[in-house]
């Protein structure tokens, strides 16, 4: 109790977020065990985890660093394709799918981080709208490269070629078949692994934000000139946030891709980038908890709206607008605040000062 | 008031600092924007523990001088010796590490962060743990963060602001924001502190308190302070040496008494007396 009391506001808020994710996980696991979960929702569990990781990693760039990036799906793509190729290679020697997935995620994360550095070094010299436009272009370039990539695996090892399939393989199998994308993907992603990835990414982001590096990143967002005047290296911290964000997107890509047997490169286009940005903006810039909730709700929503058949996207748009208005409406906010205050006052008077909310 | 002694090349030094090498020696400093010479042939010497003033009418180039010293702009002419070391080729970050810290005329705080976090950002380069140690919460992280926390509160106590540590910097009243900027600059452990209009927007009693605090900072930290200010009472009261700038050029240098009596300075501020 004393420990709880000594924790500051940020730490407590972070604990609430961890707890929220754990509780959601336990509830869903319970539903799976009792069989009370619908099959469509069950199929969405892994994509939800992947989108949650995408949202919190983009929030690091947009909310914490304060730079608008419209190419986040590009990093997801780089991670997904390299990760799945790695998974195919590893699975020849390793039987345990969990270990294969972890190794694939590490490879996907590293490749996405490298792409992040390559994109980040030129792009981060810009800021604001210019940066957004250039990241958008880079996202499309990554998609274009992956769409023209042919990768095969045979006894001699990996074979690569671009534009036209000129692989001279001795038997073996195609892993990436140009515009057809990834084929024959091992479906090794599980909800448990998705949950673990979400927790790891949350841990990294929260601990980063509450360290000197995180403070430096937020300082850049608030005032770049002042940050320089106290000796903070603008370029390196900008790049750090961008690359960590890219690596997480890469891992999310591996998780996402290994949930399906085929994945095409055009899945990771500007629409996906914007979708993730919508999660971040709707959840609140800089708020990880908001991103998680928004990503979950907005991933489940289209499935739940299936009964509206062709009007589905229309209803989705309306719900989106209503959510935006409601969360920014002063009356609604005041009502919620008042409710929260009442609640916390009750709790305090019941349990005494030690409870501390 | 310390006696000022003229020294060769660039100006004056207080008697107290005579034996020691000056902290700042700028010679023939200048910058041109296109054809406009914003600052031209600027020479100044600041002693180790001197409180020096830089005054002049609006648009004289005072803030530009600060921007040259802190390398927000790269000077096109002249040299800056900081503690005997040429800062040529350094950028704003390296100059800060070498020992110059500043505040801004239009306050530049990290508004969405707390007061304590603002000061901790000043301590950034004196907090020694890596990003990885921070993410994994190694013992070094806790140790260094604790040290930074204690140091931040200690620095805030100069201005009696330790109780405001958890407030957002942007929510502070104007005077407190100015003081926080000074604390943040001090946290970087400078040898020379540049204050750009520290008393702007303060009432007379706040200004009087600020004067006391500027002296206190000099005495406690044994650093040099160079300040730009329009409040003549403050300047004449606490500055030991004063340089007057007009149209990018120094028109007078000396002790407060000399400056007050200088006809050129009076002309720059009030205009020429009409001949009848």
CATH secondary-structure class of chain A: Mainly Alpha
| Number of helical regions of chain B | 10
**Could you give the distance between the termini of chain A?**
11 Å
Q: According to CATH, what is the topology of chain A?
A: ABC transporter involved in vitamin B12 uptake, BtuC
Largest interface: A-B, 28 and 38 residues
Give the number of domains of chain A: 1
Question: Which descriptors would you attach to this protein?
Answer:
heterodimer, A: 357 residues, mainly alpha, ABC transporter involved in vitamin B12 uptake, BtuC, three-stranded antiparallel sheet, 14 helices, 3 strands, 71% helix, 5% strand, B: 276 residues, alpha/beta, Rossmann fold, six-stranded mixed sheet, four-stranded antiparallel sheet, 36% helix
Give me the secondary-structure topology:
The complex is a heterodimer of chains A (357) and B (276).
Chain A: H1 2-6, H2 9-34, H3 39-65, H4 72-90, H5 97-123, H6 129-147, E1 149-154, E2 157-162, E3 173-177, H7 191-209, H8 212-222, H9 224-229, H10 234-257, H11 270-283, H12 288-304, H13 312-328, H14 330-351
Antiparallel strand pairs in A: 1-2, 1-3
Helix pairs in contact in A: 2-7, 3-7, 3-10, 3-11, 3-12, 4-5, 4-6, 4-10, 5-10, 7-10, 8-10, 11-12
Chain B: E1 4-7, E2 11-14, E3 24-33, E4 36-46, E5 51-55, H1 62-69, E6 77-82, E7 85-86, H2 92-98, E8 100-102, H3 115-122, H4 131-135, H5 139-156, H6 174-187, E9 192-196, H7 204-221, E10 224-228, H8 232-238, E11 241-246, E12 249-254, H9 256-261, H10 263-270
């Amino acid at each position: 109790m004393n420990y709880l009391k000594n924790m500051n506001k940020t730490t407590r808020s972070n604990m609430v977020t961890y707890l929220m994710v754990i509780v959601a996980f336990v509830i869903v696991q319970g539903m799976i065990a009792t069989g009370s979960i619908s099959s469509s929702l069950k199929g969405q569990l892994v994509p939800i985890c992947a989108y949650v990781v995408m949202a919190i990693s983009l929030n690091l760039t947009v909310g914490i660093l304060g730079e608008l990036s419209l190419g986040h799906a590009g990093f997801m793509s780089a991670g997904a394709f390299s990760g799945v190729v790695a998974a195919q290679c590893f699975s020849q020697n390793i039987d345990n799918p969990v270990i294969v997935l972890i190794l694939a995620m590490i490879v996907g994360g590293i490749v996405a981080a490298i792409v992040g550095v390559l994109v980040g070094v030129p792009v981060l010299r810009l800021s604001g709208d210019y940066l957004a436009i250039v990241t958008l272009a880079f996202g499309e370039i990554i998609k274009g490269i992956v769409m023209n990539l042919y990768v095969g695996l045979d006894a001699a090892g990996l074979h690569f070629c671009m534009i036209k399939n000129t692989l001279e393989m001795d038997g073996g199998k195609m892993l990436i078949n140009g515009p057809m994308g990834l084929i024959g993907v091992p479906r090794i992603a599980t909800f448990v692994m998705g949950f673990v990835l979400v927790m790891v990414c949350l841990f990294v982001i929260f601990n980063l934000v509450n360290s000197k590096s995180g403070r430096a990143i937020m300082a850049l967002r608030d005032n770049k000139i002042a940050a320089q005047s106290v000796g903070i290296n603008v370029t390196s911290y900008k790049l750090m946030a961008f690359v960590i964000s890219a690596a997480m997107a890469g891992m999310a890509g591996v998780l996402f891709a290994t949930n399906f047997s085929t994945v095409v490169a055009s899945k990771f286009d500007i629409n996906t980038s914007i979708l993730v940005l919508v999660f971040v903006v709707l959840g609140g810039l800089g708020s990880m908890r908001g991103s998680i909730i928004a990503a979950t709700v907005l991933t489940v929503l289209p499935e739940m709206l299936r009964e509206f058949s062709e009007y589905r996207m229309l209803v989705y748009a309306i719900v989106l607008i209503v959510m935006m208005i409601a969360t920014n409406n002063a009356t609604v906010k005041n009502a919620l605040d008042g409710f929260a205050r009442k609640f916390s006052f009750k709790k305090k008077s019941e349990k005494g000062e030690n409870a501390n909310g | 008031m310390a006696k000022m002694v003229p020294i060769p090349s660039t100006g004056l030094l207080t008697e107290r600092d005579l034996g020691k090498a000056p902290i700042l020696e700028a010679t023939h400093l200048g910058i041109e924007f296109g054809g406009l010479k914003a600052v031209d042939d600027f020479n100044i010497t600041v002693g180790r523990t001197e409180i020096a003033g830089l005054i002049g009418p609006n648009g004289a180039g005072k803030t530009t001088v600060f921007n040259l010293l802190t390398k927000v702009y790269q000077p096109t002419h002249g040299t800056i010796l900081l503690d005997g070391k040429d800062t040529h080729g350094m950028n704003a970050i390296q100059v800060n590490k070498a020992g110059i810290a500043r505040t801004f005329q239009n306050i530049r705080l990290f508004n969405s962060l707390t007061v304590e976090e603002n000061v901790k950002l000043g301590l950034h380069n004196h907090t020694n743990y890596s990003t990885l140690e921070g993410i994994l919460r190694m013992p070094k992280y806790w140790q260094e963060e604790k040290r930074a926390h204690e140091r931040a509160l200690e620095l805030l106590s100069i201005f009696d602001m330790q109780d405001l540590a958890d407030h957002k910097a942007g929510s502070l009243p104007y005077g407190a924001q100015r003081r926080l900027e000074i604390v943040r600059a001090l946290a970087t452990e400078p040898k020379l502190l540049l204050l750009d209009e520290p008393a702007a927007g303060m009432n007379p009693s706040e200004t009087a308190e600020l004067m006391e605090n500027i002296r206190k900072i000099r005495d406690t930290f044994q650093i040099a302070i160079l300040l730009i200010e329009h409040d003549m009472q403050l300047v004449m009261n606490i500055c030991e040496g004063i340089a007057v700038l007009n149209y990018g050029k120094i028109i007078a240098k000396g002790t407060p008494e000399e400056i007050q009596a200088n006809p050129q300075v009076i002309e720059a501020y009030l205009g020429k007396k009409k001949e009848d």
